[in-house]
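Entry 12.
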Amino acid sequence: MRHSFNQRFHNIVETEDLVFRYEGGGPSAAIFGLSVGIEKGSFTAVIGRNGSGKSTFARLINALLLPSDGTVVVGGYDTRDESTVWEVRRLAGMVFQNPDNQLVSSVVKDDIAFGPENLGLPRDEIVKRVDSSLKAVDMYEHRNMAPHLLSGGQKQRIAIAGVLAMEPEVVIFDEPTAMLDPKGRKEVIDLASELNEKGITIILITHFMEEALRADRVIILGNGALVMDGPPSEIFSKAEEIRKFGLKLPFVIELGEELRKRGLDIPRGIVDDEELAEAICRFL
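Predicted 3D structure (tokens):
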């Protein structure tokens, strides 16, 4: 069962007055003064225009980038502490936009074993993790295949399995569906929801507004700063503000808005296709 945004968990990720500047990037910061907490067990979508800082934010959580100022704390570990950087990366696994960038072996099961092997785990434990991770993403039957023979969506599932084999508490998806067709996008987002239902904290960086509707919470970044934060029904009910930040409304929200303009009594805050269909039926 998905957690309510208002239900309190302790924060597994916390940033305070976070600032990040790319070297040679001039005086402007990619992330500026960002203070936000991500609750354990939650599903948070982070959206914003290109250049808003959302992918930079993801890499700061995973300690691929380190703060220029302020702090990022993951599972109690400060990402600036070099002695715990690998613990941070184990706790917060990253799934990137292009799965080919994460696949390192010519056989699927060997690819999944790569992370646990680097942890120095016993062989029995590695085999157990490989099998359970592949089953979790419904790719166990493909364990002996070459990754290059798989579809884009299947490759992304393998990349996710490789992260799961590290037994993370947080999985950060950095625009994981940008290179996939609609079927592949749905499969990956469905999988993210399934992982969240099992208790894994999900942080989804996306530019597809429909994907953000699947989250418990939506964070909008603009010019590296927090500009909106709340549950999807609240965020996407503010149509004019969303457009002001250069973002499109999800189709179901836009359709509801147009129907209200045409005189249909459609309640605000509907973020689900079935809910909208039921509201139209009630009106008719």
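Annotation: The chain has two domains: 11-244, 250-284. Strands lie at 11-20, 31-39, 43-47, 69-74, 77-78, 92-95, 170-174, 201-205, 217-222, 225-230.
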